[in-house]
Amino acid sequence: MEVKAKKYYFTDKDFEAVGGDEESRFKVGDLKEIKVEKLDLCCDEIDDAIEGGAIGFGDRKKEGNQNVNVNAYGATVVPEGVRFDSFKINSCPFCGKEIKVEIEE
Ligand SMILES: [Zn+2]
Questions:
Q1: How far, in Å, from the CA of 2 to the mean position of ligand 1?
Q2: What is the pTM of this model?
Q3: Rg of the chain over CA atoms, in angstroms?
Q4: Distance 29 CA to ligand 1 centre (A)
Q5: At CA 75, angle to CA 100 and CA 79, rounded to 5?
Q6: Is 104 exposed, middle or buried (0-12, 13-18, 19+ CB in 10 A)?
Q7: Which residues make Cβ contacts (< 8 Å) with residue 1, sequence separation at least 6?
Q8: Which pLDDT score is estimated for 8?
Q9: How many Å lie between the centroid of ligand 1 and the Cα of residue 7?
Q10: Residue 54 domain boundaries
Q11: What's the 41 CA to ligand 1 centre distance in angstroms?
């Protein structure tokens, strides 16, 4: 399996809409998100697992992804709700092929 992703950074445009003087955790030039540009799947099984949300690139349930790995996901029910965990995987759990991740800056 091969993932090609690209990093996107905050620009002036991102802050124009919210107003310049509004306090923000981010500033121009900070990493905004890493988006998948191309996904080459090794087998039908991983296709199903991605479709079902068990495996995927990056963070699960976060607005902006900053995680550079392909992960297996787990969910734990806690009193406050549900906690999502990510577990990095280096090879396909179904066919064993290596997972390659290429990130464009
Ligand atoms: Zn596979």
A1: 10
A2: 0.83
A3: 16
A4: 36
A5: 150
A6: exposed
A7: 39, 40, 41, 42, 46, 70, 92, 97, 98, 99, 100
A8: 95
A9: 25
A10: 2-104
A11: 7
